[in-house]
Amino acid sequence: MGNQIDNLLYHYSYPVLFGLTVIYFSILYFGVGSLFLEVCKFLEKRNIIHKIATKQIPKDQLSFEIRHSIQSILVFGLSVIPIIYLVRIEVIQLLPNNFLNITLGLIILTLWNEVHFYAIHRLMHQKFMMKHIHHIHHKSTVPTVFSVYSFHWIEACLLSTVPLTIVPFIPFSIFAVFIYPTVSILLNFAGHCNYRFGSGKGDSWWLFGTTHHEHHSRGRRNYGFALNFLDRLFSKPNK
């Protein structure tokens, strides 16, 4: 395993790394996304979770989401190149790939993503950015699992910089960096799947489906990724 990781980090060409990353994100989006949706339907039949908006999703919305998501996946594929380059010139320092380092790395990346996403998302809701860029994502007034990567390519570029904005400054296990997109997209699916996790009442930090669905339907409030502590800290009440 160690030799395979070394080959990946130091010997694979950048076009191959780009291709592998595109395949990775495609599997997450199409494969894991479809599985996540089927699990949601299974839980709905057993009255464990509940659909938030019951109206039928138009087929043209799904095709729109998938088309823009493929574009985003290509952008995400490019995001691996600066990471690997900085590893190769030893700007990024790597920790051993043991359980503790991987777990801590995933926790730190998850928390950093909350800060990073909130900042980008608030920027996207400025008048110019909303009109010309972020409106793509908000075409999905009723979000689906296939909304998660439905972005303008500029927004995809900004969102793809989560690891790049932290790994040069804090040592990580490379496994944590590689695994994090899986953690991220699972949280993304929970926020966009149009199913309610929890009672749907109150303002609990874990009501992913409820809070993010409200953001899509209203176009305001609930700017956070999976947690809402930054919304509580910075957003004005009833805005």
TrEMBL record:
Pfam families for this protein: FA_hydroxylase
EC number: 1.-.-.-
Assigned keywords, A-Z: Membrane, Oxidoreductase, Transmembrane, Transmembrane helix
Compartments in which it is found: Membrane
GO molecular function: oxidoreductase activity
Domain Fatty acid hydroxylase: 107-234
Coiled-coil parts of chain: none
Regions that span the bilayer: 12-37, 69-87, 99-120, 141-163, 169-191
Protein name: Sterol desaturase family protein
Organism this protein belongs to: Belliella marina
Lineage: Bacteria, Pseudomonadati, Bacteroidota, Cytophagia, Cytophagales
